[in-house]
Amino acid sequence: MIFRTLVAGLALGMGLMITVANASPIRIKDLVEFDGVRGNDLVGYGLVVGLNGTGDGIRNAPFTEEIMSNILERLGINVSGEQFRPKNVAAVFVTSELPAFARAGGQIDVTVSAIGDAKSLLGGTLIMTPLNAADGQIYAVAQGTIIAGGVAAQGDAGGVVEGVPTSGTIPSGARIEREIDFELATLDTIRLALREPDFTTAARIERVINGAVGRGVAAMLDSGTVRLNIAGMRAASPAHALGRIENLLVEPERKARVVVDQRSGTIVMGEDVRISRVAVSQGNLTLRIQETPLAVQPNPFARGETVVVPRTEATIQEEPGIGLAEVRPGTSLSEVIAGLNALGVAPRDMIDILKSIKAAGALHAEFVVR
């Protein structure tokens, strides 16, 4: 069924419909987040140098001049009252994520993004930039050569831009200077937070863990949380306990959901989506207005002026669409989409039909439009 639907969607040349089948058994660590085991966002404000005339215009970005003056003064160079207008520097924001259990001396990737009017960061070098967390403390310091994600070329009468040259990355560009205070070894219980909260999935996780390591070890608190009793597992440490249960297989239960992307015409749905009895009729109405002005000139040797006379042609055309069709109760949405594809319905018209079916209360699924 998936193969037939994909072929039908590709044959239209304008969109794609994908049917997602029931989930197979998944590892617990791919379904949950362990309480406390998470990353932390870092951000910093720095300066990129070495650009080939594609940096900030100092007049339009005075903050670039300010940070450049501060850096030079920290290096012992007094630039107070000086007038300089370099075009090879750019002010940037530097962002990164400090992984869980990251240790001092380790290295992490950073992303560099221009905040002024710089044209490109290609070939630039980020000067030593402290990275702060939400508590205001410095946890890492970034520096290095930027790998830009695009290219830009500018001429006297125009230019061309491919990708995003004002943003780039520095692999292993930040060194960790401070560690997050978190003692996993002191925990007596750990909560497992489901990425997709569901009572059935949480109950299955509880049952699988209790069956593998002992009854009473796991307890479902709600649809998104399962509590793990470390003491009942008789493990050497919480880390050993998590290592015992993270690879256990659980078959998750998915909600009936339809996701459509209006820009690309993509439709993604689960296999459990169902439609009640409903009638569908769809047609296209096209309104076309065309202006063909006519210039009227006076006769030879006659007094007068050339006048432009407006001429407007307005037409309404109704293209053939889908006649009144009835969908039987219990029909799956994938069967409806396959039927619409067979009729040659364009993906964007198909999205409008699905919206109308949902508005009529006949589509029994969560409907997500992006």
Automatic annotation (TrEMBL):
Entry keyword annotation includes Chaperone: no
GO molecular function: structural molecule activity
Keywords from the UniProt entry: Bacterial flagellum, Cell projection, Cilium, Flagellum, Periplasm, Signal
Superkingdom in the source lineage: Bacteria
GO cellular-component term (any): outer membrane-bounded periplasmic space
GO BP terms: bacterial-type flagellum-dependent cell motility
Listed InterPro entries: Flag_FlgI
Quaternary structure note: The basal body constitutes a major portion of the flagellar organelle and consists of four rings (L,P,S, and M) mounted on a central rod.
Role description: Assembles around the rod to form the L-ring and probably protects the motor/basal body from shearing forces during rotation.
NCBIfam families per the UniProt record, alphabetical: PRK05303.1
Family label: Belongs to the FlgI family.
Entries under PANTHER family matching the protein: FLAGELLAR P-RING PERIPLASMIC PROTEIN FLGI (PTHR30381), FLAGELLAR P-RING PROTEIN (PTHR30381:SF0)
The name this protein goes by in its record: Flagellar P-ring protein
Annotated source species: Roseovarius lutimaris
